[in-house]
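Co-fold these.
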Amino acid sequence: MISPQRSPPGSSSQSPRSPSAPPFLSVTVTDPVKLGNGVQAYISYRVITKTNLPEYQGPEKIVIRRYSDFVWLHDRLAEKYKGIFIPPLPEKSAVEKFRFSAEFIEMRRQALDIFINRIASHPQLKQSEDLRTFLQEDEETMERARFQETGIFKKKPADLIQIFKDVQSKVSDVVLGKEKPVEESNPEYEKLKHYIFELEDHLAEAQKQAYRLVKRHRELGQSLSDFGKAIKLLGACEGDSIGKVFSDLGSKSELLSIKLQKENDRNQLVMQAHNLLMNFEEPLKDYVRAVQSIKATMVDRANAFRQQCELAETTKLKEINLDKLMLMRSEKAMEAEIEYKELKAESEEATRRFETIVKLMSEEMVRFQEQKTADLGLAFHEFAKGQAKLANEIADAWRSLIPKIDACSPSLCS
Amino acid sequence: MESLVLSDVASDYRSSMSSSLSAAADDCDPLLSPPPPLSTAASSSSSFLDPPSYADVVFSPLDSQNGAAPDRPPLRRDSSSPRSDRAAASEYAKITVSDPEKEQDAVNSLVPGGGTYMTYLVTSRTRAGGAEFHVRRRFRDVVTLADRLAEAYRGYFIPPRPDKNVVESQVMQKHEFVEQRRSAIEKYLWRLAVHPVIGKSEELRAFLQAQGKLPLPTSTDMASRMLDGAVRLPKQLFGEGLAGYVTPQDAVQPAKWGRDLLRIFKELKQSMANDWGAAKPPVVEEDKEFLERKEKMQDLEQQLSTASQQAEALVKAQQDIGETMGQLGLAFIKLTKLENVESIYNSQRVRATDAKNVATAAVKASRLYRELNVQTVKHLDTLHEYLGLMLAVHGAFSDRASALLTVQTLMSDLSSLHTRIDKLEAASSKIFGGDRSRMRKVEELKETIRVTEDAKCCALREYGRIKSDFPFLGFYWQALESKNL
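Predicted complex below.
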């Protein structure tokens, strides 16, 4: 997991104009602050950019941004860089009450930090002008830019998936009069699509279980502490009970006051629950989002393919028409030829766009797989470590209890 | 099934626990083999005598192949501990219940599948004689024994018998159920044997040693009691005074629902008069010590029940976490399969291996959690058993209270009878020569008074006995609870 303290993800490419030090771009998202009041309250984050790249205004720049600004950046990049898996954003929270809880804010801050750093370390994305705008412009410019773009480029993930489904089942353009939907018939790509869909399902399942696990840890902590309290009360009431009848049990009351240290156990479990949430469940959720981003790219690819096909068809028709006109030596031939040339250029453009996407996608897949392996490996490591630590501590706590029990009443155990 | 072996000493209430445990086991990935069955305590009779040892819970997962608990050496108690002293003091050296067998009733019943029941081989040996007795008993016999003991030893702390289960005959024959019942019966018999008074009782001896049919009068079931009572009630209400009183032998028993309806109503009226009436009843509970201890007992019971509730919540939380761990492991295994099947890049394979390792670990952890839970359930079971014992205490207290109530009722009966006689005599004296019918009435009432006085004496005696036995109850309680520690 990329933590805020990690060393800046250095760019691998060397710019010919690079200064003596290797070029770097490091961004940090910190310091969430609640601004505004009532319904319009929101959280603002401080974004600190440190760089030595010449395109930037200076070695260090601090701006204030809010979640909607991040969304703007994401959407702009998605528009401009089709074929690239845009790093995913954390979700908007639907529940009002939850929006300002400390845990949620921290989770979001971390996710935004990771988001911006992934962009800053992506070979193509980091050169984006929009990124520079985001990182440097003052707040008013940012707000203006944001309002301009609202509504045009906004797409929700649910819509994307819907479009994807539509693409698969949609009847093609009535103008072309085709019956079958236009789709790539690349077997490798088919395999990839299938893989991505399956992956999303399994990941969602794993993430769900991880979330449940977090909840269970909390519950267990609660139960342990409740139980400790109840036992303590039990011990208290037996202390001076029916004389010698309860002498054996009575000594338990000492032992049971020791149970107070069970409070420790509960805290451990709660901490572990939190730890699990941040370092295990979040990465899994992030993985799921990344996969969804891939699916968005697939939609783009499908669209581009369709466009290319359509244009190719139209161009061909135009060509046939042109030939006909040329044969008939009609006056319309001139116009037709100009039209034809325009259309051909467009068609070539569409083809080029599509091929760019294909190429980018394959590169991106490699990157994606490698990065995911690293991320997940780290998450697993944290998970294992956390669980081991928890188990050890609990075992120690119980173990230290045994000699105390032995001491206070020998007749209790043998 | 692993759960069957693990729930070797489970008691009735835990049947739902163990069935949910086995359900969880079913979800387990079939690729991973189930842990080998525990080779714990060879004889089940010694298993419930073992004290909860915390050393058992601390087992290292690295030692065992797939997460099963290592062998727990059955612990031997040294003879210096007070528990073995109690056991040594009992008349019986050994009681075991084993070998459940299905038997057919001689009578063909209407219910298909009915008429079959389970019998158990009860083996016992007395400390004195050393001779072993083997008898076959069914659960109905256990119920009979419990009822007779309750009647004979009114006022004592009588250990509660295992629950009757109202289930269909199909469930009755399932191995799990039979096993639970077997061990519950064994525990119960042992508790009776250890009891300083009941252990020496004839009823217990008859149960353990009399061959063939159990020579104790069987309890009448509810239906026949109701019939009986329905017959008697009209006589009591409308009939002559003779049918309406309580006989001395009845007075020493609590009023039974169904049979002694009239008496129950009278006693109910009396208890309400006690609570709400202005006058104090002639005899009251005065023993301060008793009242104090009763209060303490109630407090204890409250705490026990809270603690036991929390224990159950704890067990559930542990079970949940184990289950979720298992599910998580499963999800990752699926992921692994996916990555392996459709892998294009090397990084995928690396990731697949990672995921598989995590999955395996998670499933192992889940197993361990379940192990932990089984242990926890077993050890925390003591709490629940205490609660069961509180039932015995309740029984004793209510015996005392009902005996007192009987006395009070009879006394107020007597006083009202006297009043009636006085009235009748006053009225009849006004008529010259005496009123024959009234004089007859007076004679009948005097007869009733005589019988009622007798009954009152018996009831008073019974109450006195229960009261005087109370100091000794402390010992019995200690005997019972030391058994369970």
